[in-house]
Amino acid sequence: MSGFRYGFHHGGISVPDLDAAVEWYGSVLGFSLERRFEIPTIPAQVAMIANGDLRIELFEVPGAAPLPDERRIPDRDVHTHGVKHVAFVAPDVPALVEELKGRGADIVWLKVMPHGTACFIRDLAGNLIEFVQGPVPAGGAGSL
Question: Is the pLDDT of residue 72 over 80?
Answer without folding.
Answer: yes
